[in-house]
């Protein structure tokens, strides 16, 4: 039985999908937890994240299941579309969180004492982690698009 080694592109694509999922989990805990961003849902964020993850997964599955020029073309389009969707999600998340971050971290001294509670600072840190994870996922997906998804046979 011939085994295929995973290519660099396949490994990076899987890593990008996992990072995007972790970023979404972080976002969900940010919205569901206590603090400044409790119930502060960012519209279209789940759509863009899950759309990007779906593009990455479908591109991987297409390359495992079948071969051909059309499959390579579709896979290539999906691998280019995934980072774009993840970048749109990141932009939406930044736009939805930037005003609150400015309010929490850069208020004057009188307001800062009231605003910089443990719950609000924790909420802000989770928002920053979500942005960082999604940014890294986007960059990894961009880099993965430059590598082949097909591994060498052993």
Largest sheet: none
DSSP strand (E) fraction?
Answer: under 5%
Shape: elongated
Amino-to-carboxy terminus distance: 9 Å
Regions with little confidence, pLDDT below 50 for 5+ residues = none
Number of strands: 0
Q: Helical content, roughly?
A: over 70%
Evaluate the radius of gyration.
19 Å
Name the average pLDDT. Answer: 88
Structural class: mainly alpha
Describe this structure in words.
By secondary structure, the protein is mostly helical. It has one domain (8-144). Helices cover 77% and strands 0% of the residues. The chain is built from 5 helices and no strands. It has helices at 8-32, 45-65, 69-106, 109-115, 118-144. Helix 1 packs antiparallel against helix 5 and helix 2 runs antiparallel to helix 3 (69-106).
List keywords for this structure.
single chain, about 150 residues, mainly alpha, about 75% helix, elongated
Summarize, please.
With 154 residues, this protein is mainly alpha-helical. The protein has helices spanning 8-32, 45-65, 69-106, 109-115, 118-144.
Task: Spell out the blueprint of helices and strands.
Blueprint: H1 8-32, H2 45-65, H3 69-106, H4 109-115, H5 118-144
Helix pairs in contact: 1-2, 1-5, 2-3, 3-5
